[in-house]
Amino acid sequence: MSPYKPLAQEIRKLAREELRASKALWKEYKRTRPSVSERIRKRLGLIGLSYGAVILLALARHSGPKAPLLLLALYSAATVVGRSNALFNTLYRSGDLAFYMHVPVTDKHFFGYAWRNFLKSSLWVWFYSFLAFDYLTVISKLGPIGWTAAVIASTLQWLLIVSLVVVVELLPPSWPKTKIGLSLYLLTFCAIFLPEPWVSLAWRGFLPLPTAWIPHIFERGVFNHESGSLFLLIPILLFLVSLPLTSRRLRETYPIVEPTYPLASNAAVDVEQDDDEIGVVREEDWQSTKATSNLRVTPAHLRGLDWNSSGWIEGLAGHLLNEREKKSADFLCGGHLGLWSSLWRLGLKVAAIGVVALLLPKLFAPWIGIAIGAVASFFALPVIGGRWEGMQLITLSGTVRPACAGIPLSYTEMSRVLAKINLLRYAVWLPIFLVYGAILAWRLQMAPLLGIKITAEILLVLISFQPILIVGHHSYGTNDTKRLNLHSIVAILVIGSIGIAYAVCLTIVFIATEWAPEGSRAVPAVAAATGMFFCSLLIWFCYKLFYNRGRLDTMRVAGG
Questions:
Q1: When you count CB atoms within 10 A of the terminal residue's CB, does the N or C end of the chain come out lower?
Q2: What contacts 510, CB < 8 A, 6 or more positions away?
Q3: d(Cα 162, Cα 240) in Å, to the nearest integer?
């Protein structure tokens, strides 16, 4: 047991005794503590990850026994970069750091806290490794020996990944970990759909990766009963032996740079650096000039973002928004532009890969092109409403609240900015999506116009859902479903009823376009589509009334 755990338990005990002394405080504590349903949801999330791993192995089954090993090697390479980046962010930019900077905790103790959390989360590597090796053991009917070898190989793979993460963390932090990690995860996803000849070719190409060494040894030694790959145990053991040394060096050299308060605004730092340029009078300047009778102080303002030089989609958005909306969007974007154009280009590259897959019918099944097209659209489009930093949760003095809480931005104003930018992103992706639908229809030996029609209907459904997604962004961080009162019960019943009506309209659209007679499709389809937009907007309006007058709380205790 950790020596700090008894102390933490004693502090919790004393805190509960103090809270019980006040009926109001005890009632508030019971309201804000994690409920049984929340704890169940966390457990279900772990089950969902396990279920997803089983699905991936099921998809890889058609590609031969090397497919799980290829997926494991690529996933391990991606997780080395991803977990190294996550560990760095925890040590230098996390909300935990923001909390511990206000309490008497040394850098050594905080590093130990971050290191233990990293080791716990890295156990998923062991689980996925065991899943891959155990899958080969079952299909090969290796028996207890195979199961034992799977456990040993999974443990070695996990320790190797931890060693590699530490080595990567000791490297200079000047290379793009995020981009490399996302590329490797995307490559892992694409490898699921490779046919067996391509899996064998890719497996040979990725063997130089250290994350492929243990799967290669398992395949040759346990699966094929060959000993020619055992020489790879030498570099593997070198990595494992060096783990205590590299982890100790990482601990001793922390921090390599002075940690800064993670919740500080970059824009605020820029203003502080440029005070002289905009006329702000500092305290020392005030002391030296306070006797001057004609002193004039110019108020400081945060600089607006440059919408014209941040990307072509951002430039179009700058022309679409008025000046007030631009200032609101500056905040909602977190002071950074350029993401929408970058995601559009990424989606275009993925769509190009999908077009190549569709044009090679002998190598790729049609559903592979459909899956790649869906991934491309997920990158390019705000399918779940987009990422808005100004509406994310932040930690402040032991509480959690949305960043926009306390900022003079209304529900309607934020919704208008989100709707305009999201609709613009749909508009610029529309030509790519329609062309992709036409090519997919050709691949399925259908008329290209039918493919264009189907993709247009899909986009129509996604756009009709945008007001509901905007409601979800506003709801995120509030207690609208946690604290039941008359307002919340009425809102849930009304919005739920309208949501059912939306689902009914969506079903009518699907039936009218697929199964209705040819001459009688237009009227019910148009009427139901109109109903979808009406219901979606009505949900947005009803939540607006609830948001403005429903006694919502946007602040809660951290972890509650």
A1: N
A2: none
A3: 9
Quick one: which of 362, 355, 397, 358 has its CA closest to 376?
355
Q: At what angle do helices 448-464 and 411-443 cross, to 10 degrees?
A: 160
Q: Name the token pair of 266.
A: 């970059």
Copy the structure tokens of residue 306.
Answer: 């440059």
- Between 532 and 392, the higher pLDDT residue: 532
Q: Are 158 and 129 in contact (CB under 8 A)?
A: yes
pLDDT at 467: 92
3-class DSSP assignment, residue 240 = helix
319: nearest Cα among 465, 428, 408, 432: 428
Q: How many helices (H) and strands (E) does the chain have?
A: 23, 3
- In percent, the amount of the chain with pLDDT more than 90 equals 14
Indicate the Cα dihedral angle 35, 39, 41, 47, nearest 10°: -170
Dist CA 88 CA 362 (whole Å):
45
Neighbouring residues of 125: CB distance < 8 A, sequence distance ≥ 6: 76, 79, 157, 158, 161
| Buried residues in 211-249 as b, exposed as e (16+ CB within 10 A) | bbbbbbbbbbbbbeeeeebeebeeebeebeeebeebbee
H helices of 466-521, in order, are: 466-475, 486-514
Q: Is 272 a residue whose pLDDT tops 50?
A: no
Which carries the bigger pLDDT value, residue 276 or residue 477?
Answer: 477
| Number of other CB atoms surrounding residue 174 within 10 Å | 6
Distance CA 369, CA 87 (A): 36
Tokens of 113: 């806290």
Q: What six digits make up the tokens of 381?
A: 């489009």
Q: What is the reported pTM?
A: 0.57
263, HSE (Cβ side, Cα atoms, 13 Å): 20
Tell whether the model's pLDDT for residue 141 goes beyond 70: yes
Do you know the residue count of the chain?
Answer: 560
Does the structure show a pLDDT above 60 at 261? no
